[in-house]
Amino acid sequence: MANELTPQQLQAAPSTAPGVPALELEEIQGDTLIGLQKLFERFVFFQIKDVKAFKSALGKKLARRITSVRAVLGREFLLRDHKNQGNKDPLPNVGLNLGFTTFGIQKLVPEADLKDPSFAAGAEAQSGSLGDPLSGEVPAKWLSDFLGAKIDGVFLITGGTQAAVDSEAQKLLGILGAAVSVVHDETGHVRPGAEKGHEHFGWLDGVSQPAINGLSTPFPGQRLMDAGHFVFGYPGQPATPPLPWMNNGSFMVFRRLNQLVPEFAQYRLDQANSLGMDPVLLGARLVGRWKSGAPLELTPLQDDTTLGADPLQNNNFDFSDDQAQRRCPFGAHIRKTNPREDFAPAATQEQAVDPHRIMRAGIPFGPEVSAAEDATHKTQQERGLMFVCYQTSIPNQFEFDQAKWANNPRFISPLIGKKRPNDPTGPDLTVGFDPIIGQNSGAARTTDEPVPNYPEGNVRSTLNEPHDFIVATGGAYFFVPSISALEHELSA
What we know:
Blueprint: H1 7-11, E1 40-48, H2 51-62, H3 69-84, E2 95-100, H4 102-108, H5 117-121, H6 123-126, E3 134-135, E4 138-139, E5 153-159, H7 162-176, E6 180-189, E7 211-212, E8 224-225, E9 250-259, H8 261-275, H9 279-287, H10 305-308, H11 333-337, H12 349-352, E10 359-360, E11 363-365, H13 371-376, E12 384-391, H14 398-406, E13 445-448, E14 462-465, E15 470-480, H15 483-487
Parallel strand pairs: 7-8
Antiparallel strand pairs: 1-5, 1-6, 2-5, 3-4, 9-12, 9-15, 10-12, 11-12, 13-14
Helix pairs in contact: 8-9
């Protein structure tokens, strides 16, 4: 899913530049930089009940079952050959990764300080700062499994079939026995047929992932970034990790996000009628792309499905020549979360945006919308996204993106004053919230300029959003160690 590379990118992978350390691909867990191959992904959240027994199983049996980036690379070519031979049945391709919360780390390595304040506090404590509605100090919408210090770790078990994933989970839990208890167990899966690769609202997902220096060749418009933004021990990391065994590890953010799909579809239709515009165009302006993946910057008034599916074209743009937001609104989801070249000339992309990028690796969960839900415009069965991302600083990457960009009505205006079309001396714009993932503690919010002013015009319009259509129902912060750290330091 989200951050998988293509074989053509990997075939042309550049050699590491002089002076830059080569990536230790056999040590880095596979989901962090490329993404475990997955049609199904089972998340097994657990609590450690017997530390000594868990450490023994981890060091002797589990650590070397973990799927590395090296293994993921090899599987990409197997998948290519399998497809080229005309095979349509999925390969099992079982993958296994493992991460620990601050509670789990403290059980395994008492008093270890990973020097990330958000990781140390935990996702529940940080939820209010992300805009999650609270009941007192507790996230009001979260499932009880994610509340309190219940979760010590998570196994990510992936594969091409449900049977292969479940078989690996059974073996894993059999090895651990009474050393752990399962707190929450849930499986995500890619959507069927033509919707494969699309999230439940219908948009193509994972289009704008960064490429990694020394690992992949970027497509046109794709940012080539140092691995240290996502994995410790390499250029780009915010600071030297305080503990040597953190090298080749990464912080992982997990968020269980419900998507109110029929409600969002009806909302777009109602708002489009009120604004006097096409609901399909309105949806594209909320996201910044058409459902095909084609960006508004390249095709502002109608979808281009050929462009949307072409990785040589669908990411080859920036916002430097759209400073009147004629093509793409400043508040659109893809512009809020990756404001490429929007900060120039005050700050370069490398200074202003790259330090806050994340590597996404999520997967949808839940069934397709039923006929009854479609008819009543009301969700009856939960569905959404198992959101996963990797970084080397939770405060400066995931939390920054959510709080400072998605949830910030002023967005970039305090640094670079953004104006309305044909009003260069007017007040700076209040852009509003990200209309997709923005949160306001459950309160109503607005987004600026849903009606296009392309190629000319100065229509002033505001989209009112009465409530969230994406609802966080759980979350946790993890550290995903290197395979050697699992085998030695964490199992000693």
